[in-house]
């Protein structure tokens, strides 16, 4: 009985620890361009070719990402279950430079962001 109670307590502690770890996103502010993921990887772009191109790729099903000024790619995700794609939230900003704030999660070298606030950056000349 004592062993069973100890195993149950250990299992419960592991579940609690995993839940806390999984929900421990760090709030960040990211500045960068919204472009489709395929161009970010296969073409090595530093910014979108055009707004129309980014919109066309997004409408074709390519997930939009934020390519930060330092070259880091942030995958916008939802923190809901079931989850949902974030293209509708990003489509108005496709091809533009933005500032996005939200919780950032890292895993296996990838970075994702649950966007709380996003706004277009003023155009610079």
Tell me the quaternary state: single chain
Structural class: alpha+beta
- What CATH architecture label applies? Beta Barrel
Instruction: Using the coordinates shown, work out and report the CATH topology.
Output: OB fold (Dihydrolipoamide Acetyltransferase, E2P)
**Mean pLDDT metric:** 84
End-to-end separation in angstroms reads 73 Å
Q: What string gives the helices and strands in order?
A: HEHHEEHEE
Provide the gyration radius in Å. Answer: 19 Å
Strand order of the largest sheet: 1-2-3-5-4
- Total strands: 5
Structure description:
With about 120 residues, the protein is an alpha+beta fold. It has one domain (about 25-120): OB fold (Dihydrolipoamide Acetyltransferase, E2P). The chain has four helices and five strands; from the N terminus they run αβααββαββ. The chain has a five-stranded mixed β-barrel. The longest helix is centred in the first third of the chain and has 21 residues, at about 1-20.
How would you summarize what this structure contains?
The chain has 125 residues and is of the alpha+beta class. The chain has helices at 2-22, 37-42, 51-59, 87-90, and strands at residues 26-36, 64-68, 73-76, 97-107, 110-120.
List keywords for this structure.
125 residues, alpha+beta, OB fold (Dihydrolipoamide Acetyltransferase, E2P), 5-stranded mixed barrel, 4 helices
């Amino acid at each position: 009985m004592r062993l069973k109670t100890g195993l149950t307590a250990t299992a419960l502690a592991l579940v609690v620890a995993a839940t806390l770890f999984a929900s421990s996103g760090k709030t960040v502010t990211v500045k960068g361009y919204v472009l489709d993921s395929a161009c970010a990887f296969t073409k090595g772009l530093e910014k979108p070719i055009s707004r129309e191109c980014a919109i066309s790729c997004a409408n074709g099903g390519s997930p939009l990402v934020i390519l930060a000024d330092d070259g880091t790619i942030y995958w916008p995700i939802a923190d809901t279950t079931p989850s949902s794609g974030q293209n509708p939230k990003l489509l108005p900003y496709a091809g533009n430079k933005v500032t996005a704030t939200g919780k950032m999660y890292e895993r296996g070298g990838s970075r994702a962001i649950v966007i709380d606030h996003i706004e277009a950056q003023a155009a610079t000349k």
